[in-house]
């Protein structure tokens, strides 16, 4: 069965899948963070998305506005106090929500607009560029892959699959990068050889979010 539109319920469910995937990888994310950070990235990101799930669960049952739902998710992350990550993801979800406000279902154009706004939110708030060993190195390639699939006339399902694949490659590429951002940038050359924890958690979010929309 080909999927041409994503209904509100699917987006709501996707947040639960994200929480599950992050919880499953909580320890791995903490371990990734230990050579180059505070060993608590898994805790921070899991706690932040637990707050998101609570906000999504509380969203009025009679309201089916995907944009408003994404904005509620963004607010929940901002107020979760998740260190540097909170404002970044918060801004990204708020911007993604603005791009699809009022919509009860998303078509290909909507999904692309939503993801473009999400990526631009991270870039603007974090003042980041590709190649700086951050979550953006996962998110930006996934957007590029989605744009390419869209321009080639591929299905919504293929667009999401391409985005997941590119996000994984993006995450893995951070292993060979020199960190230019955050605490790990102080390590200089020693930051090389480790996957960036933020890039990894971004991949787990994308994998679960887009993956559940394909199911």
Automatic annotation (TrEMBL):
<dbReference type="InterPro" id="IPR004007">
    <property type="entry name" value="DhaL_dom"/>
</dbReference>
<feature type="domain" description="DhaL">
    <location>
        <begin position="9"/>
        <end position="211"/>
    </location>
</feature>
<dbReference type="GO" id="GO:0016301">
    <property type="term" value="F:kinase activity"/>
</dbReference>
<dbReference type="InterPro" id="IPR012737">
    <property type="entry name" value="DhaK_L_YcgS"/>
</dbReference>
<dbReference type="InterPro" id="IPR036117">
    <property type="entry name" value="DhaL_dom_sf"/>
</dbReference>
<dbReference type="Pfam" id="PF02734">
    <property type="entry name" value="Dak2"/>
</dbReference>
<dbReference type="InterPro" id="IPR050861">
    <property type="entry name" value="Dihydroxyacetone_Kinase"/>
</dbReference>
<keyword id="KW-0808">Transferase</keyword>
<protein>
    <submittedName>
        <fullName>Dihydroxyacetone kinase subunit DhaL</fullName>
    </submittedName>
</protein>
<keyword id="KW-0418">Kinase</keyword>
